[in-house]
Amino acid sequence: MRDIDITAECQEFIESLNERANEKFDYVLQIMLEVKLVSKEFVKKIESSSFYEMRIRAGNEYRIILFAIDHPNFIEAKKVILLNGFVKKASKDYAKALKKAERLLEDYTNEK
User: Fold this and answer.
1) Can you tell me whether residue 102 is helix, strand or coil?
2) How many of the other CB atoms lie within 10 Å of CB of 70?
3) What are the backbone dihedrals phi and psi of residue 35, each rounded to the nearest 5 degrees, phi first?
4) What is the rounded CA–CA span in Å between residue 17 and residue 19?
5) Which of 106, 25, 27, 22 is nearest to 69 (CA)?
6) I need a surface site. Which of 3, 10, 22, 95 has the fewest CB within 10 A?
């Protein structure tokens, strides 16, 4: 269904997760790979941006910023990149994470 790339920075974040959160990440990733219409419980558009967030609830609220490379709509996308992750504590966490995601996306597109 989808081809998913993961940046080195995002991979480090994933590896830092506890076992429960890591299992949930694997579960949501599998859904993203196999299902076209993914529930907003797992992937949601971030308002006022071109990014989406992978949502992982495992004690804490974990978010991974992602970008649909080949289509502006995640549902239609065949290629997605997971850019960076963070623990959501407040809505202000998004601004910092989105700035980092923009930089990582620029680096990614320059490499390709």
Assistant:
1) helix
2) 11
3) -115, 135
4) 7
5) 106
6) 95
Query: Strand pairing of 52-58 and 43-45?
Result: antiparallel
Beta bridge partners, 21, equal: none
Identity of residue 34: E
């990582």: which residue's tokens? Answer: 104
The tokens for 10 are 């995002």
Q: Could you tell me the CA-to-CA distances from 106 to 7, 33, 49, 69 in Å, in that order?
A: 12, 24, 15, 12
Give pTM, 2 decimals: 0.94
pLDDT in tens, 1-56: 899 999 999 999 999 999 999 999 999 999 999 999 999 999 999 999 999 999 99
Give domain 3-111's CATH superfamily: RelE-like (3.30.2310.20)
Helix (H) or strand (E) holding 57: strand 52-58
Interatomic CA distance for residues 88 and 85, integer angstroms = 9
20 token code pair:
């429960």
